[in-house]
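Chapter summary example.
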Amino acid sequence: MLGRLCSRFSERLNRYDHVDPFCIAMSIANFAMTWGVTLLAPLLICFALAIISGLVYMFFGTVLPLIEPKPFTITYCIHVAIAMFLLFNVMFNYFLCVTTKHTGESYEIVVRELAEQTNFDYPEDEHAVQEYEASYKKRMRERHRRMRERRNRANNDDSSDSDSDSGRPAWVLLGSHEWGFCMRSKQPKPPRSHYDHALKELVLNMDHYCPWMANCVGYFNYRYFLNFLIYVFVAMVYAVSITFNLFLSIDNHRRHRVYTRNQEGNFDPGAHIEKVVDPRYADLSKEERQTISFAFLICVAVGVGVFVLMAFHLYLACSGQTTIELHSNFGRKRRARHRGVMWSNPYDLGWKRNLMQIYGELSFKAFLPSAREPTYLPLPIPGERGKRKRFAGVGKRDEGVGVEMGGAEADMGGFEAEEKEKLIQRGAGRGQRPPPTEVMTV
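The structure predicted for these 442 residues follows.
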């Protein structure tokens, strides 16, 4: 075990052209984070399941009998039905978030359909993969060289011609619809995909790695992830609403004041307690009061935290971004602002169509439990061409619509589209919205 860890650390260190203290520190940090997350993830899953199980036990064992002491009444059955509906949806989506695979047959089908719709000649054998890797490396070297030359001309400073820019992620230099190459998994890299160090896999539309799920959130499970957050938040709102009055009724400070007054007046310490406490809850035991307080506070804390995360991801979903792309887009907007132009997200089709990329045809059924795969391809493409073949029902691509985006000569890729991009952005500055298939890297 120790030998395997040492060998993997050496592999990380060997990726640098030269070794210095900074390289060693970065390798140690990356190595520790990857293995720390990998080891911590199972514990976090168990902790999450323990919280869910504890809240369910407290609801059926303490809260529900206090709200409706008589079982099988209409009120009792309504509360049970609501609780079971929310619990099933939470567990269903959580299970699929954890177990969904980002590789395999579904991945191969999707990437080949995407390659067909973007006119990318997907390499099918080892020799073709090696040829594409060589052409990709040549393309990246040329773009780094052009970037340095452009920066030198802008600064009029020959000393800025350094290799410092070569440390930028290669995907930042690619066009929005342009294919790259993953050096770690040794396979063509579809647009918007990233390599996940924890899973050791190339993930389509990667958003982030979630240690609470021991899985990466991406193209195949993003709908489950969003639904999980939504149902957890709704469940916490429901739990807080039914325990709020219980929590107020067991306020220890108010009970203490009444008890103190009664003792000072030589009255029964429990007398008149019903004046400040709901009579139904005046005789609660200490264990019941502790259970209600704990359940209420846990639900409030979880509800607030999940609401923030849910709102953030709903914003990303409605704006056609992932968490990774959001950070990159901030930099692109800032650079565009310095150049006096407007920048527009090439993946943004409008909030409704952006949600359709995740949920398919929008309806109430989209939020019900379903293990179906995404309807649309991971790259926003207008019209029926953007749907997967199994959902579109057609396999023929629209003639004359496709744009060459896959090879080294891709007119829409990265630095090849610089002049066209400036014209597009100037048009956007005059109020014209650029088409979603255009590449606007800054």
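To summarize the output: The two ends are 45 Å apart (CA to CA).
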